[in-house]
Automatic annotation (TrEMBL):
Keywords: Membrane, Transmembrane, Transmembrane helix. This is Bifunctional diguanylate cyclase/phosphodiesterase. Residues 23-273 form the EAL domain. It comes from the Bacteria.
Length: 275
């Protein structure tokens, strides 16, 4: 039996070791990326259906890797969260987003994704304050996107922080609405400025009646609570038509534009204003 145990141990160890080593290497690479400025933000416009203008850009993190090229967040944000590195990366992103947004017209906001790990970190409000102060961006031009999962460990402290940010003048959006922690009680605890309707619902509205019913209810709920709505991942005209019919306030997706590099945002604004 002892022999078997050792045999089993020897058999599994190298595989576990390889996974752990890969993760450790990614962590080291992420630290290096932060130290040497390999992160970028791309910006995806959010098109306001009432004013027919771009009202906001969502800042989306990219890793401009020296050998592998642009790496999307799905490939490194989870490890950055596990290791806590997301706090420093997110701080960089907050500063960079505010710095870029200053170049846009006064009525164009920037939306920044904030991971629950960052949000629960005690220094978060200060990071926002610093980014606004250093860039000179008026707080009302900054929107923070959080997901329902921040409420998993209780509402009290989170709601207090949301109120502090709101007092600064920052807007708060609830991202990926309908996909996470599914109690609606937090909608009573805090008046969000916006609900972002997850792409998974938008994907099926051209073909699936139940998806249309869900999207319609989210929009009605948002209207009743004086919140705006953004539909994410809009790719087709038919989806846009349904969203428009049900009174969605704004859309984001490849139909209108992919995320673009910072240096292309002004041209995009000029083009859409002229159209
Ligand atoms: P998200 O916040 O839900 O962002 C929307 C994602 O959908 C983006 O992917 C965007 O490029 C993609 N998208 C937009 N329109 C379309 C469309 O029409 N079709 C399709 N197929 N996709 C579309 P991206 O940039 O890869 O980001 C993925 C996720 O990574 C984000 O999801 C967000 O959760 C996270 N993330 C991005 N930037 C940051 C950041 O600065 N901090 C943190 N903590 N997370 C971030
Ligand atoms: Ca988002
Ligand atoms: Ca989202
Ligand atoms: Ca999403």
């Amino acid at each position: 039996a002892k022999q078997d145990g050792r045999g089993t141990f020897r058999f599994f160890e190298p595989a576990l070791d390889a996974a752990a080593r890969k993760r450790r290497q990614l962590e080291l690479d992420l630290r290096e990326a932060l130290a040497t400025g390999q992160f970028r933000l791309h910006f995806q416009p959010i098109f306001d259906l009432k004013t027919e203008r771009v009202g906001c850009f969502e800042a989306l993190l990219r890793w401009d890797h020296p050998e592998r090229g642009m790496i999307p967040p799905a490939e490194f944000v989870p490890v950055a969260e596990e290791t806590g590195l997301i706090v420093a990366i997110g701080e960089w992103a907050m500063h960079e987003a505010c710095r870029q947004a200053i170049a846009w017209p006064d009525d164009v906001r920037v939306a920044v994704n904030v991971s629950p790990i960052q949000f629960r970190n005690s220094g978060f409000a200060n990071i926002v304050f610093q980014a606004l102060a250093r860039s000179g961006l008026p707080p009302k031009r900054l929107e923070i996107e959080i997901t329902e999962s921040v409420f998993i460990e209780g509402e009290g402290p989170i709601v207090d922080l949301l109120h502090r940010l709101r007092e600064l003048g920052v807007r708060i959006a609830l991202d990926d609405f309908g996909t996470g922690y599914s109690s609606l009680s937090y909608l009573r605890s805090f008046p969000f400025d916006k609900l972002k309707i997850d792409k998974s619902f938008v994907d099926s509205i051209a073909s699936d009646e139940s998806a249309v019913a869900i999207v319609k209810s989210i929009i009605d709920l948002a209207n009743a609570l004086h919140m705006e709505t953004t539909a994410e991942g809009v790719e087709e005209d038919r989806q846009l038509a349904t969203l428009q019919r049900h009174g969605c306030s704004s859309i984001q997706g490849y139909l209108f534009s992919c995320p673009v590099a910072a240096e292309d945002t002004l041209e995009l604004l000029a083009k859409t204003a002229a159209a």
